[in-house]
Design brief:
- By secondary structure, this protein is mainly alpha-helical.
- The protein has 17 helices and 2 strands.
- Strands 1-2 form a two-stranded antiparallel sheet.
- The longest helix has 20 residues.
- About 55% of the residues are buried.
C-alpha cells in the first residue's frame, strides 16, 4: 500500500505532500542497512502480468456487494477507498470498521491496515502493542506493507525496541513481497514497489525504475501511481510533469490529488485560481481537512473578510476543525463568531 506522507488529519501544504512518500507508519528515515543485501529485480522473469486495480474510483459498488456477501478481501479494498477518499467521501471511521471486518474474516491485508488505525489512534484508541501485533501477524503472512510498517517502527523505536538490523531485514522483506505482488498483477503492490525504489526502502534507490512502475500503475487507473509520478517530478524540479501527474491523480478520483492540484492552481492566473478554489473546496466537502484550511485561507487568510465570504470561510474552517485539522481550528479563532444570518 502506498501512503502519501501527511500526519493524521492531513495538515498539508502542497510541497510537503509532494516531497514525502511513506507507508502506513508515517515518515521515517529508511533503516541504515535496508538496501545492503537487497537483490535487484531479476531481468529473467517472464513478461509482466496484466495489472488489476482494486482501489479505483468506479469500484465501490462492486466491492460493497462483495463485502456484504462475506468476501473479506473486498472489505479491505473498500476500506482503502474510504480511507484514501478515492471516488467516495473520505471516511476514516468507516474505513477502520471495514478493516476490522476484513481482519475478522482472516484477510491479512485488512489486519495490517487495522494495525494502522490503532497506531494512529484517531478513530480507534491508540494502542501501539496491538498495532505491532497486527503488523507482525500480517507480515508473517506475506503482507508487504506490514513488513514495511514494522521496519519503520524498529528503525525509530516507536512501539517497539529500536533495532536497525531488524528494521533493515524487514525493509528488504517488504520490498521483496511488493515485487512478488507486482509480478502477480496486483497494481497496488506495483505502486508500493515504485515507492520503495523512490525512497530506497529495502531496495537501492532508482528513480528511473520508480517512474516506470508508477507510470504503469497510473496508466491502468491506480491514482497513487500518479501521485508517485508527481513526487518524482517534484524531486526532478519538473513542474509541468508534476502538474500533469496531479491532473491524472485527480481524474482518477483521489481527493488528495485534487487538493494538491488545486493548491498549484491557486498560485496561477485568476482563471486557474477560481478552478483551484473549486477543487480544494470540493475536497473539503468530501472530508479532507487540509483542503478546508487551504480554501478558508484563500478566502480569509488574514482574517479580514466579512459577509458571505466570511460565512463560507467559517463553514470551511468548521468542517476542517471537526476533521482534526488544527490549522482550521486556528482559522476559526481568527474569524471569531460566525456572521449573523441575513
Amino acid at each position: 500500500m502506498i501512503r502519501v506522507c501527511v500526519p493524521q488529519g492531513f495538515p498539508i501544504f502542497v510541497v510537503a505532500v509532494l516531497l514525502c512518500c511513506c507507508h502506513a507508519s508515517g515518515c521515517a528515515p529508511r533503516p541504515a542497512d535496508a538496501v545492503a543485501a537487497s537483490p535487484r529485480a531479476s531481468d529473467t522473469r517472464g513478461p509482466p502480468q496484466p495489472l488489476v486495480v482494486q482501489v479505483r474510483a468506479d469500484n465501490a459498488p462492486v466491492l460493497t456487494r462483495e463485502c456484504d456477501a462475506g468476501k473479506a478481501r473486498s472489505c479491505t479494498w473498500l476500506g482503502r477507498l474510504y480511507g484514501d477518499g478515492v471516488g467516495v467521501p473520505l471516511d476514516a471511521g468507516r474505513s477502520c470498521a471495514l478493516y476490522r471486518r476484513a481482519c475478522d474474516g482472516a484477510d491479512l491485508r485488512g489486519c495490517d491496515l487495522l494495525g494502522g488505525c490503532y497506531q494512529v489512534g484517531v478513530v480507534l484508541p491508540q494502542d501501539l502493542p496491538k498495532a505491532m501485533d497486527l503488523y507482525r501477524r500480517a507480515c508473517e503472512g506475506g503482507v508487504a506493507n506490514a513488513c514495511t510498517s514494522l521496519s519503520l517502527a524498529f528503525g525509530s523505536g516507536s512501539g517497539t525496541r529500536k533495532d536497525e538490523s531488524e528494521a533493515a531485514r524487514l525493509a528488504r522483506k517488504g520490498a521483496q513481497l511488493d515485487q512478488a505482488g507486482c509480478d502477480g498483477g496486483v497494481a497496488e503492490d506495483c505502486t508500493s514497489l515504485a515507492s520503495d525504489y523512490l525512497s530506497g526502502m529495502g531496495v537501492p534507490s532508482d528513480l528511473a525504475r520508480a517512474a516506470a512502475l508508477a507510470e504503469r500503475t497510473c496508466g491502468v487507473g491506480h491514482a497513487y501511481g500518479c501521485m508517485v509520478l508527481a513526487m518524482i517530478a517534484s524531486e526532478s524540479h519538473n513542474e509541468q510533469q508534476k502538474l500533469h501527474a496531479l491532473e491524472r491523480a485527480c481524474e482518477r478520483g483521489l481527493l488528495l490529488g485534487c487538493a494538491a492540484l488545486g493548491g498549484i492552481y491557486l498560485r496561477g492566473q485568476k482563471e486557474q485560481q477560481v478552478q483551484g478554489l473549486r477543487l480544494v473546496t470540493s475536497a473539503c466537502e468530501q472530508g479532507l481537512g487540509a483542503a478546508c484550511t487551504m480554501a478558508g485561507d484563500v478566502l480569509c487568510g488574514e482574517g479580514s473578510c466579512a459577509g458571505d465570504v466570511a460565512s463560507i470561510a467559517h463553514r470551511l474552517y468548521t468542517k476542517g476543525c471537526a476533521a482534526g485539522e488544527s490549522e482550521s481550528c486556528d482559522g476559526l479563532k481568527r474569524l471569531g463568531p460566525p456572521p449573523a444570518p441575513r
